[in-house]
Amino acid sequence: MRNPAPKDNAELEALEQREWQESLDYVIQQGDRGRVQRLLATLRHQARMSGVALPFSAITAYVNSIHPDEETPIPGSQEIERRIKSLCRWNAMAMVVRANRVSDGIGGHISTYASAAALYEVGFNHFFRGKGRDGDGDIVYFQGHASPGIYARAFLEGRLSVERLENFRHELRPGGGLSSYPHPWLMPDFWEFPTVSMGLAPIMSIYQARFNRYLEDRKLKKASTSKVWAFLGDGETDEPEALGAISLAAREKLDNLIWVINCNLQRLDGPVRGNGQIIQELEAVFRGAGWNVIKVIWGSDWDPLLAKDRDGLLAKRMGEIVDGQYQKYAVESGAYLREHFFGSDPRLLEMVKHYSDDQLKRLRLGGHDPVKVFNAYKRAIETHGKPTVILARTIKGYGMGEAGEGKNVTHQQKKMNESDLRSFRTRFGIPISDEQIAEAPFYRPAEDSPELQYIRERRKALGGSVPSRSVRVEPLKVPLDGVFEEFSKGTGDRKASTTMVFVRMLSKLLREKEIGDLIVPIVPDEARTFGMEALFRAVGIYSHVGQRYEPVDMDTLLYYKEATDGQILEEGITEAGSMSSFIAAGTAYATHGVNAIPFFIYYSMFGFQRVGDLIWAAADSRVRGFLLGGTSGRTTLAGEGLQHQDGNSLVYALCYPNCLSYDPAYAYELGVIIQDGIRRMYQEQESVFYYLTVMNEQYVMPEMPPNSREGILKGMYRFKAASDPNSKLRAQLFGSGAILNEVVSAQGLLEKYGVAADVWSVTSYTELYRDGHACERWNMLHPGETPRVPYVTQCLKDAPGVYVAASDYCKVLPDSIDRWTPRRMRSLGTDGFGRSEDRDALRGFFEVDARFVTIATLAELLKEGQIGADVVSRAIKDLDVDPNKPNPAVS
Ligand SMILES: Cc1ncc(C[n+]2csc(CCOP(=O)(O)OP(=O)(O)O)c2C)c(N)n1
Ligand SMILES: [Mg+2]
Predict the structure, then answer these.
(1) Quick one: CA torsion of 589, 595, 601, 606, rounded to 10 degrees?
(2) Cβ proximity of 127 and 377 under 8 Å
(3) Ligand 1 contact, 196 CB (< 6 A)
(4) How distant, in Å, are the alpha carbons of 243, 520, 658, 675, 772 from that of 576?
(5) End-to-end Cα, the chain, rounded Å
(6) How confident is the model at residue 310 (pLDDT cuts 50, 70, 90)?
(7) Which of 177, 205, 600, 827 has the fewest CB atoms within 10 Å around its CB?
(8) How far is the C-alpha of 445 from the C-alpha of 452, rounded, in Å?
(9) What does the DSSP 8-state code read for residue 576?
């Protein structure tokens, strides 16, 4: 019998809906999901062509991306894995609790790992590949605050002793301890990547994944299936660097990159998005950027409920709850959940009427369910053509119970009382007795226990332990005299800038047989600024897909050549991204066993000042390579003004312990420093890196004075002695970088006033400063022994007269060594904001030109009583200096 005609529109719509659903069911039952997708796409298209405006949505429902039907069971024993995970949880917690009992306030985090344990354990048991099999394991960025869990795992694996665990956050104790967070500088055999400054691991991981491709495309490393995993916090994604480069990962089709974002909905102070949904927000952002997004929101316990949710009521309800409320559910009882979550609709209540309150309370979230996590990881590693992000919902402080589970204070909870410990123990089945519980002892089962056997077997199958850092590279043998020799000869009467000199050195290095291929030039859209465009054609710009267009300047000699084996990393306008590439390249000696030699050249003002924290991470990572601050010096970069003129970077560089910084003036200085840098980093395998300023001012490059090599490297040497050493009035002038030429001119000017001055080139105040302190320290601790004499003191031992130093940087730089100069040193520098002006005007304004060096020298001689005030006044007049000009430091 035919259905009666529908009464009204509502009935008609209900009928239509049923028919369409039945049709869809039919197609789904045929088992071909691709067919469903195609069908729906056709319908969408048809609707759009008929003028139906379909609302745009970058998000899907608030449910798991992987349907239970698509899941595969986890291989191995889930029961043993659960016990291992519980032991990791316990030991991680005990590590923090015990550390804080002994030293109150020593810190540590329980709740981050407590929420992430399943995310890591599934990785350790099934995915993370060690380097043991073919030397090419996975690269894993562990969330910094989860470090206790990673140590706990290493403890079970037998890699860390109880003593080391006992000394968590007490690294200086005898026998050593464990650093708070992942720091390769402090634990160079263990940690590979520093992560704890939040937002840096995400961007570093993207460029790492891209750099892995670069090495493969350039045949510096064989093709590999290894993955880069980055474990991040949901709060961390607010850091601009965290999401700032995600479009690159999609554009470059980095399917070797997997991010796991632990969406516990909380950060340190409270909810990440109390009034919103961080998972949905991130889904939209990542989908929009072209990533594969896998949401792991609900555990298997929810599958039967969702299976019954034919009308989408439950999914709808899930999607309308904001995160602040979800957090409340996490701390509340099952009855509360029933009333406030399911209670919104009688049909939802009906769905759970057979569930006890206790059962409702125990409905697990996706990020705590190994089956869900395993399937997400599996899909991620099987995904081709795009990076994957897994958004895993968890509870912060999971298992901490009253001590912190889901609470706003949980991030900083470091203590558990006896009853908290007891419930934790019972909940996770840790075999520790009531008598022992108050102690919170570490627990490691017997070597032949099923747990430890399982761990050993799994890690063996996966290629060894993770994390593990080792340097497997062979030192390079690089006699590069052939490359650098020409620079010691000077340029005759031809003018050049140190930037031009650098580019020539780089071009020659790129052609060198032994190391040419290992050079990695990195530029943030600034190659033309530095005159490097010839390299575009010579070595090509790296692009995984080569060049799919005809470049507009194809018919020119220096055309914009992109190539799969291109050598230059042209990063576009991102110093943060470029720095991440620098880190990936500069640590390749450990990560990949490749002695990559990065040269990252950038506008100097946008280096330490802008991406200083990434440079700090580079230093922690034991990076090797050269940072080049281009167009540096406050007065050397004409015209650009306050935002560009850098008189700061060398001052910052002083604070980076393994960064050697230099301010070379001449071609041979730069040559000596780079050649020695390559020797130290790649031949001697020292974990240092270099910051070199290069300028765009052109002048004649002189010949290298004899015996100056050692001084160039140590920080100073006499460049030009006074023509009349027997003069009554004597001075020692110190110049650096482009200001050295002003100092040389001052030497000439001073002759007119009867002053004979020696000129020193100070290539590195920072090295002189470090040497001075090192000597002083040694002397303090070795009384009675022959004192060590700082290099600067040795140099000036017999140098007569007053001292004046001038640099294009803040005065604090020369001031930093003045305690080791036999007499006090007068310093001229560029404290203050830059100006849009030409060089002469700028140097006059900042009082660092030849005139001011002259006046300062005469003023010092006056102070010493060697000349009268009239001489200084005359010079001020002769040199046309306004004594009442504004002070540049404060104007
Ligand atoms: C750049 C930076 N800012 C601040 C901190 C301090 N801090 C450490 S953890 C934390 C909260 C982390 O929240 P989330 O990223 O959500 O990680 P969860 O612990 O919840 O997994 C904060 C603010 C830091 N480590 N780095
Ligand atoms: Mg969080």
Answers:
(1) 0
(2) yes
(3) yes
(4) 12, 17, 20, 27, 33
(5) 94
(6) confident
(7) 177
(8) 7
(9) H
Tokens of 366: 């996706």
In this structure, are strands 755-762 and 716-720 parallel, antiparallel, or unpaired?
antiparallel
- Which uninterrupted H or E stretch holds 673? helix 667-678
At 758, which helix (H) or strand (E)?
strand 755-762
Radius of gyration of the chain from its Cα atoms, rounded to whole angstroms: 33
273 lines ligand 1 (CB under 6 A): no
Whether pLDDT at 4 is above 90: no
Cβ within 8 Å of residue 215, ≥6 positions away: 221, 588, 592, 594, 596
Q: Identify the residue whose C-alpha is closest to ligand 1 atom 21.
A: 233
Q: Which atom of ligand 1 is nearest to the CA of 199?
A: 1
CB atoms under 10 Å from CB of 552, counted, come to 9
Compute the distance from residue 268 Cα to the ligand 2 centre, in Å: 8
CA of 88 to the centre of ligand 1 (A): 22
The backbone region for 158, taken as left when phi is positive above 0, alpha when psi lies in -120 to 50, beta otherwise, is left
Annotate 607-626 with b (16+ C-beta within 10 A) or e (fewer).
Answer: bbeebbebbbbbbbbbbbbb
Q: Is 268 in the pocket of ligand 1 (CB under 6 A)?
A: yes
Distance of alpha carbon 165 from alpha carbon 92, whole angstroms = 9
pLDDT of residue 875: 98
CB 97, CB 332: distance < 8 Å: no
Q: What are 285's two structure tokens?
A: 């952002």
Q: Phi and psi (nearest 5°) for 591? A: -65, -40
Alpha-carbon span 552 to 559, nearest angstrom: 8
C-alpha angle 537/543/545, rounded to 5°?
Answer: 120
- In angstroms, the CA 262 to CA 367 distance is 8
Supply the pLDDT for residue 2: 58
Tokens of 651: 């001052």
Residue type, 807: S
Question: Are 871 and 884 contacting, i.e. CB atoms less than 8 angstroms apart?
Answer: no
Q: Are 599 and 625 in contact (CB under 8 A)?
A: yes
Instruction: Please give the Cα distance from 750 to 742 (Å, whole number).
Output: 12
What's the burial of 794, exposed, middle or buried (CB within 10 Å: 0-12/13-18/19+)?
middle
Residue 217 dihedral angles phi and psi, to the nearest 5°: -65, -30
Looking at ligand 1, which atom is closest to the CA of residue 196?
Answer: 25
Write out pLDDT tens, residues 439-462. 999 999 999 999 999 999 999 999
| Residue 203 near residue 257, CB atoms below 8 Å | no
Q: Which residue has the tokens 């601009």?
A: 240
Q: How far is CA 281 from CA 63, 116, 288, 296, 377, in A?
A: 14, 20, 11, 14, 21
- The per-residue b/e assignment along 830-843, b for 16 or more CB within 10 angstroms, e otherwise, is bbbebbebebeebb
What's the count of helices (H) and strands (E) in the chain, helices before strands?
36, 20
CB 201 within 8 A of CB 614: no
Candidates 612, 604, 766; CA nearest to 694 is 604
Length of the chain: 891
Q: Is the CB of 257 inside a 6 Å radius of any atom of ligand 1?
A: no
Q: How confident is the model at residue 5 (pLDDT cuts 50, 70, 90)?
A: confident
Query: How close is the Cα of 294 to the center of ligand 2, in Å?
Result: 18
Do 82 and 117 form a contact (C-beta atoms < 8 A)? no
What DSSP element (H or E) covers 794? helix 791-796
Could you give the CA distance from residue 30 to residue 632 in angstroms, rounded to a whole number?
67
Sign of CA dihedral 291, 297, 303, 305: negative
CA 696 to CA 679: how far, in whole Å? 27
- Could you tell me whether strands 659-662 and 597-603 are parallel, antiparallel, or unpaired per DSSP bridges? unpaired
Is any ligand 1 atom within 6 A of the Cβ of residue 71? no
Render pLDDT for 738-789 as a digit per residue (tens, 0 to 9).
999 999 999 999 999 999 999 999 999 999 999 999 999 999 999 999 999 9
Phi, psi of 645 (to 5 degrees): -80, 115
